[in-house]
Write a structure and sequence with these properties.
two-stranded antiparallel ribbon; alpha/beta; 7 strands; Rossmann fold; 124 residues; five-stranded parallel sheet
């Protein structure tokens, strides 16, 4: 089976640290993605998660002290694969959803893209 491609996908980016957000955007644009966002607040990201055409999402777990889990729930309801980013490591997903995947910060660009491809493959 071939590896999933990110090219042509619309990717929701939810991240409150500007430099990290810019890095994510650069990595995804280089892969041929279209960026939806970026959003740095849960309320705005939640509206986008419910209304925008999104193929994939990258979600910072903690946005200025607010957990991004409502956004993840909205994406899961729509069947949109997503990946958490977190400085808390692999255990950042809530106990109620151990299947939700995490990419630890700091990350290498190739690590991020591989984990996103893995999410696409797992969704099929």
């Amino acid at each position: 089976m071939g590896q999933a491609t990110l090219s042509g996908l619309r990717v929701l980016v939810v991240e409150d640290e500007m430099l990290v957000s810019l890095l994510i955007e650069d990595v995804l644009v280089e892969e041929g993605c279209t960026i939806v966002g970026p959003f740095n607040r849960v309320d705005a990201a939640l509206i986008a998660a419910r209304t925008e055409k999104i193929d994939l999402a990258v979600l910072d777990v903690n946005l200025a002290g607010v957990k991004v889990f409502p956004v993840a729930d909205a994406l899961a309801e729509r069947g949109v694969p997503f990946l958490f980013l977190s400085g808390y490591g692999e255990h950042a997903a809530p106990p109620s959803h151990p299947e939700w995947r995490v990419c630890s910060k700091p990350f290498r660009p190739e690590e991020l893209t591989q984990k996103l491809r893995d999410q696409l493959t797992a969704q099929k």
